[in-house]
Amino acid sequence: MLYGGDYNPEQWPEETWAEDAALMKEAGVNMITLGVFSWARLQPGPDTWDFAWLDRLLDLLHGHGIAVDLATATASPPAWLVRAHPEVLPVRSDGVRLEFGSRQHYCPSSPVYREAAVTLARRIAERYRDHPALALWHIHNEYGDHVTECFCAESAADFRRWLRARYTDLDALNFAWGTAFWSQRYGSWDEIEPPRDAPGPVNPTQTLDWRRFCSDALLACYQAEKDVLDEVSPGVPVTTNFMSMFKALDYWEWASREDFVSDDAYPDPADPEAHITAAMNYDLMRSLKGGRPWLLMEQAPSAVSWRPVNVPKRPGLHRLWSLQTVARGADGVMYFQWRASRAGAEKFHSALLPHGGTRSRGWAETVRFGAELAKLGPVAGSRTEAEVAIVLSWDSWWALEQEDHPSTRLDLRAIIASWYRELWRRNIAVDFVPPEADFTRYRLVLAPNLYMLRSETAERLTRFVAGGGHLACGFFSGIVDEHDHIHLGGYPAPLRDALGVVVDEFWPVPDDRTVPVESAVAGAAEGTVAGAATLWSEWLDVTTAEPVASYAGGPLGGRPAITRNVHGDGLGWYFGCHLPSALGAVLDAAGVRPAHETPAGVEATRRGEFLFLLNHTDAVSRVSGLSGIDLLSGATVRDELELGPLGAAVLTPNPAPER
Ligand SMILES: [Zn+2]
């Protein structure tokens, strides 16, 4: 288990370094990320390099048995580069060029930036490839944070190159973008620009292609550095730190270019359900490379500094939330940052070594958790098996959240989180999968929303159901193809066989209103699918499906709201309204099993043979039906486990029967 964090020694006099290294040892730190924001220090001028200080640091850390995750330092170009080449600075959609003085101030398509970044990465790689402390390469930092897109002339030219590669001929682009509408036809590639601020709604397919391009433009920056590291320093794993379920970058594609996935996670201690959203993000990180362990690259030991109100983690919460990352597939817990900064924008961001030094509560927790994490070594490498998958498509996400839709209140992350919550509170393991995935590995596939659905994906989903799979599809799914053109013939046309429904018209629910939904079947399921739907409803007709729930009033009163369709050997459920609590009926029908049954607020999840139990409540909780040894306390558990407030246990089966 890796334990450590970002270390920014250039912010401190060199006398501090030896104390830092000694304290790292005391805390059980075994991995340090170096150089994330060191560009200006490493390259003070265009032809000036200074590596001597970094040499001494790597030697110092190695001398203390601490491995180094070495960054390529390319996230924050130095002032000299920006002043010599002002065109490196990014431009907003309204034409304003952003200034130097923060970070991430670069145009992803700038050849000057890309060349300077690759040169820096190469110099660092060549100098340290054989250093014994080097364990990992850390490219850049949080791609897409602050700046996800640039509207400058250079980016416009890069966009046109990307479009030519995608469409080859202009007629294909004109068709895909639907330029017959509003007289938008292009007669030459040179007439095409990024979707800058315009008098009214901008062409939705142009905007969609722009999002695809922006993810790819940043990915090209990453790939250029990755190629250098693979060439100069083969065999050393390479990652870049993700930002959980982040809209701007298609992490399926990004993760395929990484050697392992790493994530920066900052759940808000002020949010009473933060641990549920966090679990969802960690499951995504675990899923991005097909279930392989990932690394928590950054978290805050306590408060962050960038929310309007930055609430610290109450005693025990840092430990509990850290263990949650391991429970959901992390093979290491790392932080931003080692020593709290004295100056700069993040000086109030908590750190492993707070401003108050070793007398602080934070330091005591740093040391205590380091010792505890070391006990979880046997967990490293183990994997989670899931019977349920949630389909996540960045293409569909970008297309869904465009303007001029029946409702602009549809937030994919929130919709997925509302479905995920139903799985989380039942301790049912779930993988995230892209639309291209092999669905047949799962008993149940959930598509909370797939607004954009390629016909090929719809065909595979339909075959999955016919072959005995269970599919539950949320409202406003299967609406458009990959060009954002409507699938004609009644929504959701490509899924009609699997779902057995036709949507005649969308009836989005205004803010602060609800639509009553009641069970449409007598008997056991009654009551479980009733409630008040928010956000969305539909005028829905069934063809082969049977209504499971119907609207209990209003213009849609009596019409089906949730349906179930037998197709071949499987079941296709359709949610025409937003009522995630009704998912219980879907889970019951699929027969998916929990990791363990627990009281409310206690999370149970499995990694290999290990069962993690995490009490997210402030009360004592008892979980029964368990036996084994708790790796954290060393105690033997027989039948019942008592968890204190924010308590945790990691059970491994008792290796030897008692005599
Ligand atoms: Zn640009």
From TrEMBL:
Enumerate the active-site residues.
142 (proton donor), 298 (nucleophile)
What processes does the entry annotate via GO biological process terms?
galactose metabolic process
UniProt keywords (A-Z) are: Glycosidase, Hydrolase, Metal-binding, Zinc
Q: Which domain of life is it from?
A: Bacteria
Q: What residues does the Beta-galactosidase C-terminal domain cover?
A: 601-652
Write out the residues that bind substrate: 103, 141, 306
MF-aspect GO terms: beta-galactosidase activity; metal ion binding
Residue positions binding Zn(2+): 107, 150, 152
> What are the residue boundaries of the Beta-galactosidase trimerisation domain, all occurrences included?
386-581
Q: Where is the signal peptide?
A: none
Task: Give the protein family.
Answer: Belongs to the glycosyl hydrolase 42 family.
Protein name (database record): Beta-galactosidase
